[in-house]
Write a structure and sequence with these properties.
Four copies of one chain form a homotetramer. By secondary structure, chain A is mostly helical. Chain A has helices at about 1-40, 45-75. Chain D binds a DNA duplex through helix 1 and helix 2.
Chain lengths: ~80, ~80, ~80, ~80
Amino acid sequence: MADITIAKDQLRSIVERIEKLEEEKRTIADDIKDVYGEAKANGFDTKVLRQVVRIRRQDKAEVAEQDAIRDLYLNALGMLSGR
Amino acid sequence: MADITIAKDQLRSIVERIEKLEEEKRTIADDIKDVYGEAKANGFDTKVLRQVVRIRRQDKAEVAEQDAIRDLYLNALGMLSGR
Amino acid sequence: MADITIAKDQLRSIVERIEKLEEEKRTIADDIKDVYGEAKANGFDTKVLRQVVRIRRQDKAEVAEQDAIRDLYLNALGMLSGR
Amino acid sequence: MADITIAKDQLRSIVERIEKLEEEKRTIADDIKDVYGEAKANGFDTKVLRQVVRIRRQDKAEVAEQDAIRDLYLNALGMLSGR
DNA sequence: TCGCCTGATAGTTGCC
DNA sequence: GGCAACTATCAGGCGA
């Protein structure tokens, strides 16, 4: 019975932590939505805005991916161990 | 020209705020993942854990209604007796 | 040089076969979407429909086991009586 | 009762069509896996191969996205109606 | 071979 | 009410 109680408390703790974090995440998502709304109120085209944000994100990701590809190639050539 | 400059600053501000918020959101998502990982390490079934979190999140009335419809469908398919 | 040429042709063949298969896969995914759309037009609740399909897909024993674990968790959280 | 029978048949038809399509999709996914396996057996680095396939896919998507952005900009400038 | 982790896919939500 | 963006879940591939 004791171990069940412990598991019970643990479970409750886990679930509550997750729910708290999800709540925070939702809040931030709402904040993002608000910023887009504010931008729209200031005459910006949110569709374009989203494209801009996405492109900036992709650019960063692309750099990271190119690095990964370069490592793959170097590794395939047996040249990566020295890095 | 002045208004273009203003718009430019505004745009920059908007994009930066969005990116900052998205970064925070990502961090929290990682935290959630960590909690699940910790739960798993403590012997919990994370798949079921996710189901539980989802059940708690859902509106109770809605769940009941969906259950009713689902039973209707399953029954029509002759699959309800076995459950 | 010859083997490089061969590898090149092989590589091209491989990539093209994969892309062709991925294209087919995408087509079928679209077909599935169409069926759901048609079902919706005929008054079916697609959300529940997806649940039904999922239920049929899952291994029955596995479902039973997950149900048992989930009940255990919900019970530990004091949430089972209300269901 | 009659309409229930009709709905029942419709439901069964819908579910069976979806399940058939999902089965086909799974088969194709397996085929793709086979191609990668064959490539591996022929000495290709599947990790690099996947990168190649992904990059080709992204390149196409990127072209499509750039077209979309161009349209957005042209539209913002009131220049799209003539297209 | 097992567990982790990323990437693909399915599902949901919010906007137009 | 349909479409597009975003989120969550799942499965496959990789490394230990």
